[in-house]
Amino acid sequence: MTSSPKKRIALLGSTGSIGRQTLDVVAANPEHFEVEVLTAQNSAEELIRQAKQFKPNAVVIVNEEQYTTVKQALANEPIKVFAGEQALGSVVQMESVDLVVTALVGYAGLKPTIKAIEAGKSIALANKETLVVAGALITQLAREHRVNILPVDSEHSAIFQCLAGEIHNPIEKIILTASGGPFRGKTRADLAQVTKAQALKHPNWSMGAKITIDSATLMNKGLEVIEARWLFGVQAAQIEVLVHPQSIIHSLVQFEDGSIKAQLGLPDMKLPIQYALAYPQRLKNSFPRFDFARYPSLTFEKPDTETFRNLALAFEALERGGNMPCVLNAANEVAVAEFLNDRLSFLGISEVVEQCLGKLDYIREPALEDYVETDKMTRIRAKELIR
Ligand code: NAD
Ligand code: MG
Q1: Which residues surround the ion ligand 2 when the cut-off is CB under 5 Å?
Q2: Distance 217 CA to ligand 2 centre (A)
């Protein structure tokens, strides 16, 4: 094969867990990828280090108080330095960018993702919150601009890989696997006692704090159900969650003849990241290989939605539709942040989400301004509930 030109990448959230692993993939494949943009919220030192190593065209430090630090440190480099939230929306539109990796966390991903799609950039989407908040709007925009949204989330990457070559074959069902998190098998009485430190210890994956808590409450799986609905155009009733504690089968697709395809591998985010970056190619790598003989039993069980209310609440929000998933997301972001600040109990997280879902006004076909307003009002409401 002749060498294709390098893909030029804008990496939003480069200092986070997905961001750093994306840079590992880029560093291992310099003939395929080049970094155009790096961005971070607060981590100036890490951003500076990355910029010196990867020599992007531009960097953004979102926290404006850190601007001078970054600017001075990169004064001798041919790198543009920007600060502030707005800058994220401009750098993704730069002429030289081919692919935008959304590795930033939370609602903050929404606006830059919209800007990137409007500029016709391919999206490698890790930031699932964007599709939870405004899946209808984002997927419609992607269709209009003929933009590919390539999943980075391991489950969605698995489904995407299972769908290769199946373009004309309808999906009967998606089976989304879940590890069950650190509290699998616990009762509500047990959960009333759990600590932040316990919640931050995921059995199979090392990730940012927010998604780690979401994994412990099963909200992560709820967000992923909504993400799958939009990425693959299926209805809520076609999505089944299956607890699989070993995290080897990353998800499955059942077709109309009853045949099921699965994607397997060791739990390592670098594989789905690399698949999204190199798509439709598969690149050779030396990641550790899965060995069936070392895993004599792969086990499966139904999720316990009585104990882990968040998963049921996410299905409810998806079925109600409109701005309800946006409410779910905003309430959860506030509740998780307050839990991490020791101001809310573990069980309090789903209580806040449930109350917000019952209290915010329903909007059936929200426009962007409605999502922005819903997010804002929900955050106010959630904070009132916690105080
Ligand atoms: P993280 O907390 O480790 O990193 C977040 C990154 O985003 C950092 O670079 C941070 O500087 C930046 N950031 C934080 N808040 C921001 C804001 N308000 N505006 C702009 N930038 C901001 O998070 P992570 O674990 O890497 O997760 C990133 C996204 O990927 C999340 O949406 C998560 O759900 C998704 N995801 C993560 C994993 C994983 O293994 N970590 C797996 C699947 C999906
Ligand atoms: Mg996942």
Answers
A1: 153-155
A2: 14
